[in-house]
């Protein structure tokens, strides 16, 4: 069993943000069968701007995977699932 | 993507169009504020554009740190340089940036695009930028904001199809936010044009440029636009070095110099006498022009010493001699400048009154020279500044530019209320004509000249003019002796005006002639007195002679008459005897 914690930063519930959440959840569901579990935390930086500051976020939606290092960051609506997996280094 | 989809953080509290214009926000750079008629438009974005190394970041940092020094707070958003580098810069210019950061007066938002980010999908949102800036501004209640090198965003998100719309939204938000803001961009006209930065977003546009002429670089600044306020329209040169930004308006100078009735001693009694007996007025502009070896530097040093002796500060800017040379050379004529220098023994009481700055004329452009001199004057506040020789600035350059710069330099020093002593080196074939052509600015003009005659060189000194002073209009002789400088009245006599050894010779010649003439005069006067007596004597003689002659004749007549009488008597007696 392999659990990965991901944080998805959005800036308000925009259409792009919703698409990114959907895409990330779909990716998580697809990974379930391979024995990977993605724990996804969605953070709205409009509510917690200090977190955007801490992570030096300029653009959203942004997925950040901190562990294991190195830090992986993927920005955009996450519509191409394969590229997301590569970008986050989530290939089982 | 429609912009209405976005929720703009913290923009609700900003009034998009302030009803009444607020007073401008000073940048703290006095020269720039003067050109901007007070400062940047308050509550509005201003654009600062220029290529790398033109000083955008330094100006923006100064603007922010100046506000903090005035008790405000500031937010600096960097898209290019690291926060550490910015803190180093600010501290290098004397702003306590790290302390401000720790105390919560300054915040630096690191918005450098991260190259390791992977972009998936074509759309991104830049709301995070607005959220972070808005959050920082709110937390600090900051009236000042800087977005430095904002064009770096474009290259950071080059893959995004909607980047243009997003950046436009960022700029609109900044404009709506009503904070006094400086945006800086590189000199890429397309970037500011693409986002309407110059036309629409910014109320004030300042362009920075590097001008390279004769292999010497000068930085210039120009206000391209200033909405709702006046501004100087010229290109303004400015300094950027370890002391920060320094800029003085080119033609904003006005004649508002303080007028002083105080006099400045020259340390040369004869020269004081030529200037009405008290030396030139303090705050005046003095030019000493002369060919090589006529003693310009010696007179300058003498005046420097005299002013230092009064405890006032003198700034000696030497364009030819190094300080050590100057001290040694002037020591040979009895002027000990070393005792006034900073390193001198403080027991003399005058140590530190002479600040000497050797400058190589070729080192900087004219404008940079001007700004460095003015900055030194503002920092040191001397009573007298000596520019020796100021003509070295105009050598090997365009003469009109040098003249214009020199006039402005003299104006500016005058405005500071500081006396200027400039020397001008005339070439040997100049026939004594000044090439600087700045006489309108000169209050006191002293001309030195060489007179070569009979195997000897004499130095002559004339006061061409001295505004407000009764001056000597005589050309006098000027001597550099081991015991100091002397001014000597020339020989004036039958043969004209003569100087030097010839003067002594002529004086000796005159002595002989006078002696002879005096003898002649005595003789003549005696003759004149005697002539009556002689006449009278001869008269007496003549009369005596005449009388004597008459008496003699009378006697002869009497003798002849008595002989005749005797003869007549004798004849009569004989006649009677015979008869």
Features:
heterodimer; A: Glutaredoxin; 4 strands; 28% strand; B: 579 residues; alpha/beta; Rossmann fold; nine-stranded mixed sheet; rod-shaped; disordered N terminus; KaiB-like (chain A); Thioredoxin-like_sf (chain A); KaiB_domain (chain A); Circadian clock protein KaiB (chain A); EC 2.7.11.1 (chain B)
The CATH architecture name of chain A reads 3-Layer(aba) Sandwich
Q: Mean of the pLDDT scores of chain B?
A: 83
CATH class of the largest domain in chain B: Alpha Beta
Q: Briefly note the CATH topology name of chain A.
A: Glutaredoxin
Indicate the mean pLDDT of chain A: 89
Tell me the strand order in the biggest sheet of chain B. Answer: 3-2-5-6-1-7-8-9-10
Distance N terminus to C terminus of chain A?
Answer: 11 Å
What is the subunit arrangement here? Answer: heterodimer
- What proportion strand of chain A? 25-35%
Number of DSSP-assigned strands of chain B: 21
Based on the coordinates given, report the CATH architecture of the largest domain in chain B.
3-Layer(aba) Sandwich
Radius of gyration of chain A: 12 Å
The SSE order of chain A reads: EHEHEEH
Cα(first) to Cα(last) distance of chain B is 203 Å
Pairing-aware structural class of the strands and helices of chain A? alpha+beta
Classify the helix fraction of chain B into a percent range. 25-40%
Helix content of chain A: 25-40%
Total helical elements of chain B: 15
Alpha-beta classification of chain B: alpha/beta
Q: How many independent structural domains of chain B? A: 3
């Amino acid at each position: 069993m392999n659990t990965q914690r991901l944080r998805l930063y959005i800036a308000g519930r925009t259409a792009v943000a919703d698409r990114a959440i959907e895409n990330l959840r779909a990716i998580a569901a697809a990974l379930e069968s391979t024995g990977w579990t993605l724990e996804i935390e969605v953070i709205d930086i409009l509510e917690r701007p200090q977190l955007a500051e801490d992570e030096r976020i300029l653009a959203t939606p942004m997925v950040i995977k901190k562990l294991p290092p190195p830090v992986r960051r993927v920005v955009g609506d996450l519509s191409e699932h394969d590229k997301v997996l590569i970008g986050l280094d989530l290939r089982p | 993507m429609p912009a209405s989809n976005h929720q703009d953080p913290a923009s609700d509290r900003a009034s998009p169009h302030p009803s009444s214009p607020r007073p401008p926000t000073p940048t703290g750079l006095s020269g720039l504020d003067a050109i901007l008629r007070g400062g940047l438009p308050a509550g509005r974005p201003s654009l600062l554009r220029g290529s790398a190394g033109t000083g955008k970041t330094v100006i923006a940092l100064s603007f922010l740190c100046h506000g903090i020094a005035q008790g405000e707070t500031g937010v600096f958003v960097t898209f290019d340089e690291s926060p550490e580098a910015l803190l180093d810069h600010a501290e290098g210019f004397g702003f306590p940036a790290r302390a401000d950061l720790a105390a919560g007066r300054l915040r630096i938002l690191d918005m450098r695009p991260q190259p390791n980010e992977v972009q998936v999908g074509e759309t991104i949102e830049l709301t995070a930028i607005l959220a972070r800036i808005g959050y920082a501004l709110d937390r600090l209640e900051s009236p000042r904001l800087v977005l430095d090198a904002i064009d770096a965003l474009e290259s950071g998100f080059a893959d995004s199809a909607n980047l243009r719309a997003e950046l436009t939204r960022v700029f609109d938000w900044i404009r709506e936010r009503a904070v006094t803001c400086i945006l800086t961009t590189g000199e890429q006209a397309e970037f500011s044009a693409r986002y309407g930065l110059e036309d629409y977003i910014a109320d004030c546009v300042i362009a920075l440029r590097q001008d390279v002429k004769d292999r010497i670089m000068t930085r210039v600044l120009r206000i391209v636009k200033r909405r709702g306020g006046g501004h100087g329209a010229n290109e303004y040169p400015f300094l950027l070095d370890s002391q920060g930004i320094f800029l003085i308006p080119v033609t904003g100078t006005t004649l508002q110099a303080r007028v002083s009735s105080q006099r400045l001693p020259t340390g040369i009694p004869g020269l004081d006498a030529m200037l009405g007996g008290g030396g030139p007025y303090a705050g005046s502009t003095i030019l000493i022009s002369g060919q090589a070896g006529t003693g310009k530097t010696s007179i300058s040093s003498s005046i420097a010493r005299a002013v230092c002796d009064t405890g006032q500060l003198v700034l000696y800017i030497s364009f030819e001699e190094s300080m050590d040379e100057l001290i040694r050379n002037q020591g040979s004529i009895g002027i000990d400048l070393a005792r006034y220098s900073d390193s001198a023994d403080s027991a003399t009481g005058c140590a530190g009154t002479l600040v000497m700055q050797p400058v190589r004329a070729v080192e900087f452009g004219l404008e940079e020279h001007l700004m460095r001199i003015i900055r030194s004057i503002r920092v040191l506040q001397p009573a007298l500044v000596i520019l020796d020789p100021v003509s070295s600035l105009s050598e090997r350059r365009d003469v009109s530019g040098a003249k214009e710069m020199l006039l402005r330099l003299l104006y500016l020093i005058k405005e500071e209320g500081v006396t200027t002593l400039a020397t001008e080196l005339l070439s040997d074939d100049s026939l004594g004509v000044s090439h600087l052509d700045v006489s309108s600015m000169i209050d006191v003009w002293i001309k030195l000249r060489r007179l070569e005659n009979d195997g000897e060189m004499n130095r002559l000194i004339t006061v061409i003019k001295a505004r407000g002073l009764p001056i000597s209009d005589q050309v006098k002789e000027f001597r550099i002796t081991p015991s100091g400088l002397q001014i000597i009245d020339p020989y004036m006599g039958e043969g004209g005006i003569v100087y030097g050894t010839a003067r002594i010779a002529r004086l000796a010649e005159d002595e002989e002639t006078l002696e002879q003439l005096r003898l002649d005069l005595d003789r003549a006067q005696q003759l004149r007195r005697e002539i009556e007596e002689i006449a009278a004597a001869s008269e007496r003689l003549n009369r005596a002679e005449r009388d004597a002659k008459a008496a003699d004749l009378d006697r002869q007549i009497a003798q002849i008459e008595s002989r005749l009488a005797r003869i007549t008597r004798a004849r009569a007696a004989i006649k009677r005897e015979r008869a």
